[in-house]
Write a structure and sequence with these properties.
The structure holds three protein chains of three kinds. Chain A is mainly beta. Chain A is built from two helices and eleven strands. Chain A has a single domain, classed as Sulfite Oxidase, Chain A, domain 2. Helix content of chain A is about 5%, strand content about 30%. The longest helix of chain A is centred in the N-terminal third of the chain and has 5 residues, at about 60-65. In chain B, the strands form two sheets. Chain B has a six-stranded antiparallel beta sheet. Chain B has a five-stranded parallel beta sheet with strand order 9-8-7-10-11, with helices on both faces. The longest helix of chain B has 13 residues, at about 130-145. The N and C termini of chain B lie far apart (about 40 Å). By secondary structure, chain C is mainly beta. Chain C has one domain. Chain C has one helix at about 20; strands at about 10-15, 35, 40-45, 50, 55-60, 65-75, 75-80, 85-90. The chains are: A mainly beta, B alpha/beta, C mainly beta. Chains in contact: A-B, A-C, B-C. At the A-B interface, loops of A face strand 3 and strand 6 of B.
Chain lengths: ~200, ~250, ~100
């Protein structure tokens, strides 16, 4: 342990709020990115689900907005230790987007404009646990926060909620995405503090 | 002595070293210079920085990086900390750390954004806001080493209240042979300024920078957007990329 | 060096890699010449575009934006991924 600096407190997890282990409460919304913010034109935006045998279904922006919309309010937990409670979003449930897909795949690779990827079990996108969202706090999602649309899967660490989402590839076997190849956990449950592979 | 600091015992550069606060000086209402005593400090070159680590009683710790504000002066190390509102570390360092209390520093860090005090040749220093800190180390080092190389400092700030080292820069302008200092105000210029408040752009830089034919080494430091704009302007003014050294501090504060 | 009191925040440059890389290397690498695996442009490590990706620092080629290097801590380990860099060339001559 380092030399103690008297009087230094730093940030602390708020014991009053029910937060996952190691997290602290924030009232901002930090922007953390691994690369430049892509500028995506809505007229060319698409979202594509591709099965493990290569069958693809694609939605344009207009088609996407015409799907049934939901307005989830959720808590989000970032692996860098900040948590934000009661965030409100608007978008389309993955249950709707994946509803007609025929697949035997167990895993999904989520892909973003700009090249970011993240993997998770297909089951964790279903059953009302995930959405493709395009509004935050009543306003269109801004590019620094992932706009035009991002994945929202709040029961996992927020790096799984890929910004600038452009599609999902279904996979028979789990493959690591951008952070997972760097040693971050393939699943990422904040309540079991699964930050790193092997946790 | 030149070059010794970078060459020194490699092990000295990676360990965390205790540094005790011996003096605090207010540069502006929101920026403070901390003078620290770091026993065993291996020395450093102007432009380098340190990592600072603070540990709380329960073992929680966090780190930040700060440029060294002064040249190598034995075991004494100076940092100038800009207070970021609601920051975790900067308000504590600026206002709460008590004289005699320890922090930990690691370094010196960084071997590219450095100016050796025995180097020849024209030097251009362009600093935006707190980007002036490592450049001040260079200007101070030049005078302390008795180096006559022509040096120009252009320091971009919003208002007169934001100028770090104001009195010292004033004194050096009149005193340090071969050093020219221009403060470029972007929001509010003092009465009698040669130039009205204006963002430092290529046209103004063209007047203030050394011409490319002088083959100066250019050091640009400050917020990312500022550094990108200045580096691009220098290239457009004919300076080679290899003569431009940059250090970006991240997005501008509020 | 950090204007913003978060560690490090937003878009900086390769100077910000010096501290984290000192967990792995005793030699300073900021002056090292890096060749991008994607576009083959050579640039000093200090000049790379560096994103505070949250868990780690992501260094990208200034020209083509491909990821060249990732460095960070994963638990109690320091980790370096250099797969976007073909050649890292460290100057051993003295700085003049």
């Amino acid at each position: 342990m380092g030399i103690i600096t008297p009087g230094f407190r730093g940030r602390r997890p708020d014991p009053a709020a029910h937060l996952p282990p190691g997290q602290y409460l924030t009232h901002d919304f930090p922007v953390l990115s691994a690369g430049p913010t892509p500028m995506i034109d809505l007229s060319s935006w698409t979202f594509t689900v591709t099965t493990e045998v290569g069958e693809a279904q694609t939605w344009s922006w207009r088609e996407f907005l015409a799907l049934p919309q939901e307005a989830p309010t959720v808590d989000i937990h970032c692996v860098t230790k900040w948590s934000k409670l009661g965030t409100s979003w608007r978008g389309v449930a993955l249950d709707v987007l994946l509803g007609d897909i025929e697949t035997t795949a167990d895993y999904a690779m989520v892909k973003s404009y700009g090249g970011y990827t993240t993997n998770l079990p297909l089951e964790d996108l279903l059953g009302g646990k995930a959405w493709i969202v395009h509004e935050y706090d009543g306003e269109p999602l801004t590019p620094p926060h992932g706009g035009p649309a991002r994945l929202l899967v709040p029961h996992l660490y927020f790096w799984k909620s890929a910004k600038w989402v452009r599609g999902i590839d279904l996979m028979a076997d789990d493959q690591p995405g951008f952070w997972e190849t760097f040693g971050y956990h393939d699943y990422g449950d904040p309540w079991r503090e699964q930050r790193y592979a092997g946790d | 002595m030149a070059g010794t600091a970078v060459r020194g015992r490699l092990a000295d550069r990676v360990l965390w070293r205790r540094a005790d606060l011996i003096e605090r000086r207010y540069e502006t209402a929101n920026a403070v210079t901390l003078v620290l005593d770091a026993a065993g400090w291996p020395g450093h070159l102007p432009g380098q920085h340190v990592d600072v680590r603070l540990t709380a009683e329960d073992g929680y710790s966090t780190q930040r990086s700060y440029s060294l504000a002064a040249p190598h002066r034995g075991e004494q190390v100076e940092l100038t900390v800009q207070v970021v509102p609601d920051g975790e570390v900067s308000p504590f360092l600026a206002r709460s750390l008590a004289i005699g209390d320890p922090i930990e520093v690691r370094g010196p860090v960084g071997g590219w954004f450095v100016w050796e005090p025995d180097a020849d040749g024209h030097v251009m220093l362009i600093g935006g806001g707190s980007g002036v800190v490592p450049l001040m180390a260079m200007a101070r080092a030049r005078q302390e080493a008795g180096n006559g190389s022509p040096m120009r400092l252009v320091y971009s700030v919003r208002t007169p209240q934001d100028v770090f080292y104001a009195a010292e820069l004033e004194r050096r302008m009149g005193h340090d042979e071969g050093l020219e200092v221009t403060v470029a105000y972007t929001r509010l210029a003092p009465a009698g300024s040669p130039r009205p408040a204006h963002r430092l752009d290529m046209a103004i830089l063209a007047e203030l920078a050394w011409p490319a034919e002088s083959r100066p080494v250019n050091f640009v430091c400050g917020p990312t957007d500022f550094v990108d704009a200045m580096a691009t302007a220098l290239v457009e003014l004919g300076h080679g990329e290899q003569m431009i050294r940059t250090e970006r501090f991240g997005p501008s504060g509020a | 060096m950090t204007d913003h009191d978060q560690l490090p925040y937003g878009l900086v440059d390769g100077n910000a890699l010096a501290g984290p890389l000192s967990d792995l290397f005793a030699v300073d690498l900021t002056a090292a010449s890096m060749t991008c695996a994607t576009c083959r442009k050579r640039q000093p490590l200090a000049a790379l575009e560096v994103y505070a990706g949250g868990p780690a620092l992501i260094a990208r080629c200034r020209t083509c934006k491909a990821v060249m290097l990732r460095v960070g801590r994963v638990g109690s380990d320091a980790l370096l991924d250099l797969r976007g860099t073909v050649v890292l060339r460290i100057h051993t001559a003295e700085l003049t």
